[in-house]
Amino acid sequence: MKNSIKIVMLFLISIIVVSCKKEEKSPSYHKGEMTILTDESFKSVTEALAEGYMINYPETKIKVVTKKEDLGFLDLLNDKARIVVMSRDLSPEEIKTYEEQVDLKFLPARFAADAVVFVVPKDSPKESISMKEIEQGMQSDKKEFIFDGVNSSNLNFVAQKLKKQPKDLKFSIISGNKNIIEELNKYPDKIGVIGLNTFSRPYDKESEELRNMVKILPVESNGRLYTTDFENLRKMNYPFTRILYFLTNEGNFNIANGFIRYSCTQLGQMIVQKEGLQPYNLYRREVQMR
User: Is 69 in contact with 86 (CB distance < 8 Å)?
Assistant: First the structure.
């Protein structure tokens, strides 16, 4: 009899232990830790969304780590990261590799319209730049365009827009978007190429200081000049408008997919707008008059 009781007790304990282990491993979007990989060019909006998520879900801890866009994508494929921020379009081969290695359908979660902008020192006589100038300049030995490095989102996007490979373009390098702005006065004959989100926050002191150091050149395309105002970003009239999106290798509804859903809801999109970027998902604002 005693042995029977012991066997029953051991059986019940084993069931409890197994169920506890299953509970510990079950997906949770509102607790746990995660690292997001993002190119430096859109680090600000990524950090703002991460902070918003952690405020809403205090048991989550999200760390934002900067990494060149291409390298971040490779880390995702190799399961070294759960989520990355991307801007360029993936090639059919890259999409195929993603679907095979991650074993998920390629479903980019688009959340913001950003832009690559061309800047010159504030006292520069240059007032605009044409698509033709950009294309010719990127083939010139003068290397008049300054990018923040190889494998960066800015270089990748410009190359894609010009239908070229980055290795086929000629350019100078200063590491970091902010460093380009701060050092551009040393190179009056050069044009800096940076991400808009570097200084797009309208009421941020640091962003304001950076904006005051340079002049953003409108881009001429098909006889018209386009600036990076909200309307041109929303309609994608500005030639170097780019759509930011999340990619994940998480197959269940854990913290990565929870964060993606949050970023694409109205609350997340309000954060995107406060960052000075165009929200990808537009929500109607209804006001009732009484």
Answer: yes
